[in-house]
Amino acid sequence: MSFEVGTKCWYPHKEQGWIGGEVTKNDFFEGTFHLELKLEDGETVSIETNSFENDDDHPTLPVLRNPPILESTDDLTTLSYLNEPAVLHAIKKRYMNGQIYTYSGIVLIAANPFDKVDHLYSREMIQNYSSKRKDELEPHLFAIAEEAYRFMVHEKANQTVVVSGESGAGKTVSAKYIMRYFASVQESNNREGEVEMSQIESQILATNPIMEAFGNAKTTRNDNSSRFGKYLQILFDENTTIRGSKIRTYLLEKSRLVYQPETERNYHIFYQILEGLSEKIVTNLN
């Protein structure tokens, strides 16, 4: 690992996690390297080490930074230095530019914008990604859906899209848009087919309020947190037209029925029942 004067790097920071810096001094004296870094906040950091190998014995060594042209790459695997601060900075920089999706090889990373971004999922956007290879356009949920759909059509094989993330990451919404994409890119041009697909899509979406009532709860991080897993199958016929779907639920957090953290709630259904009761019954129930 090289730390010549002028080398751009990342240095651990208590508040920001990592902060950018530049090597301003690199001396070797009596078997010890003496580094001096000028951080972006103006602070100067001095480091003494007998090795430039960043391991458990030298945890405070800076981490090399990528050139600016790579820092907002749409695929993290193209980074010259693939390390924690480089990944976080690339995702953050793209997020600040309104680009919430980033590839990491075959994986799509999504940063929840916590804002309305309906323009990203418009019918025009669906048409843009239809029949396109993944690397032809910006990273997007529709590119992943398109790739799965095309493999199914051409290879005649089942496809699986795994949507994972922490609570509040946007998994349920992402799955909804993937399903909407499948329902919108059918190659059938007859009107009846389009109506049928719309009905199936509506029926699948109509199950959400029911499942959320019994399986979602308010948590400290998400007012509508899914406390169960969902396995959704979309069924196509030999003409690759959607004919139905199956939904399977699993791993429900049953312990929430009898215990909830102080700042969290039980499942929505209990509050919905109480909301629908008359004042007299509520009073009798205390």
UniProtKB/TrEMBL annotation:
<feature type="domain" description="Myosin N-terminal SH3-like">
    <location>
        <begin position="4"/>
        <end position="57"/>
    </location>
</feature>
<dbReference type="GO" id="GO:0016020">
    <property type="term" value="C:membrane"/>
</dbReference>
<dbReference type="InterPro" id="IPR027417">
    <property type="entry name" value="P-loop_NTPase"/>
</dbReference>
<dbReference type="GO" id="GO:0000146">
    <property type="term" value="F:microfilament motor activity"/>
</dbReference>
<feature type="binding site">
    <location>
        <begin position="165"/>
        <end position="172"/>
    </location>
    <ligand>
        <name>ATP</name>
    </ligand>
</feature>
<keyword id="KW-0009">Actin-binding</keyword>
<keyword id="KW-0547">Nucleotide-binding</keyword>
<dbReference type="GO" id="GO:0051015">
    <property type="term" value="F:actin filament binding"/>
</dbReference>
<dbReference type="Pfam" id="PF00063">
    <property type="entry name" value="Myosin_head"/>
</dbReference>
<dbReference type="InterPro" id="IPR036961">
    <property type="entry name" value="Kinesin_motor_dom_sf"/>
</dbReference>
<comment type="similarity">
    <text>Belongs to the TRAFAC class myosin-kinesin ATPase superfamily. Myosin family.</text>
</comment>
<dbReference type="GO" id="GO:0005524">
    <property type="term" value="F:ATP binding"/>
</dbReference>
<keyword id="KW-0505">Motor protein</keyword>
<dbReference type="GO" id="GO:0005737">
    <property type="term" value="C:cytoplasm"/>
</dbReference>
<dbReference type="InterPro" id="IPR001609">
    <property type="entry name" value="Myosin_head_motor_dom-like"/>
</dbReference>
<protein>
    <recommendedName>
        <fullName>Myosin motor domain-containing protein</fullName>
    </recommendedName>
</protein>
<feature type="domain" description="Myosin motor">
    <location>
        <begin position="71"/>
        <end position="286"/>
    </location>
</feature>
<dbReference type="GO" id="GO:0016459">
    <property type="term" value="C:myosin complex"/>
</dbReference>
<dbReference type="GO" id="GO:0045184">
    <property type="term" value="P:establishment of protein localization"/>
</dbReference>
<keyword id="KW-0518">Myosin</keyword>
<dbReference type="GO" id="GO:0007015">
    <property type="term" value="P:actin filament organization"/>
</dbReference>
<keyword id="KW-0067">ATP-binding</keyword>
<dbReference type="InterPro" id="IPR004009">
    <property type="entry name" value="SH3_Myosin"/>
</dbReference>
